[in-house]
Amino acid sequence: MARYVMANRRAGKFLDAEKRASRDAIESGFERLFARGVDLIGDLAPADELARRVLVFDADPIEVSAKAGTLSRDVIVEPEILHFPIAKTRRRAAARTSQRSRPRRRAGVAGRRSDDAVRRSGDVGRYCPVN
User: Fold this and answer.
1) Tens place of pLDDT for every residue, the chain, 131 residues?
2) DSSP character string of 47-102
């Protein structure tokens, strides 16, 4: 099973009748083709009947590709693409927060030489010692 996003097209629709027809197309298309054979994960259906409706569901990719061609041109069905996974973002944010809350450690004691080295800009492969 793969996860899909289904939404009604709003681009280029300026009249209320066009927006309403687009919203009706997603509602009838989902009920007619997908409602019985998919696992509905999310449904963003604003109370405003002119607003965009977005459905997220798990379905068989072969079934979706076969049925997607029969939908109205006002309905978009595409695989879900997670651009910013929530779990990773939260983990990274927590790591950044915990690093900021720790006091910074001093790099070394004044007057002592460190064994660390850094690369100077423009010097490929050459390092200079850090005091």
Assistant:
1) 899 999 999 888 899 999 999 999 999 999 999 988 899 999 998 999 899 999 999 999 999 999 998 999 999 999 998 887 666 555 555 556 555 555 555 555 555 555 555 555 555 555 555 55
2) SSTTS--EEEEEE-HHHHHHHHTTS-TTEEEEE---SS-HHHHHHHHHHHHHHHHS
